[in-house]
Amino acid sequence: MAKVKGFSLVELMIVLAVVAILAAIAYPMYQSYILRSACDSGKAGLLQADALMNQLYMQYGVYNNADIKDNKLPGMGYIPVDGSSTKADFTIAVSPLEAKKYTITATVTSYGRLRRFSGSTLTIDQSGARGGSIGGINVWTNGCSALK
To answer: What are the E-state strand segments in 1-139?
Structure first.
């Protein structure tokens, strides 16, 4: 009698069950990671804009100078400030722009990784005061890992 080679149906079902369990654990963790990274990039964009504003203040002695056009900052790097990218998680704007004060607002877009929180805002002003929330969660104090 020849020896049969291959897998039995029971062995195949066990492997499928193990893969399904691993996928059920890994996918929610991946989704959580995506939300945290998008949130952190928005916070980093705000802090980058704040640093640019302070650099402009050191250079000109005022916040409202010729380098800022239409309430948008130059040199923002990887964060689109005008919403021109259809993959941007945030748009960033500066207002009201006065000689000695400003507020920078990052607004969640409707097409980025945080789209279900569309319209949520994070802010930072000239004194470093941070405000706003994403999905009702203050990510400045609770951290982005609180997003679900």
So the answer is: 90-95, 103-108, 121-125, 130-133
Nearest to residue 50, comparing CAs of 102, 4, 113, 100?
A: 102
The whole-angstrom distance between residue 26's C-alpha and the CA centroid of its chain comes to 21
Confidence check: pLDDT of 63 > 70: yes
Of 66, 124, 132, 131, the closest CA to residue 94 belongs to 124
Q: pLDDT tens across 83-114, in order?
A: 455 677 888 888 767 888 889 898 998 888 89
Mean pLDDT for the chain?
83
Q: Is residue 75 within 8 Å of 52, Cβ to Cβ?
A: yes
CA distance 49 to 127: 13
Burial class (CB in 10 A: 0-12, 13-18, 19+), 8: exposed
Return the structure tokens found at 74.
């130059």
CATH architecture of 11-146: 2-Layer Sandwich (3.30)
Selection from 116, 67, 60, 126 nearest residue 95 by Cα: 126
Distance CA 93, CA 72 (A): 5
Residue labelled with tokens 């380098």: 67
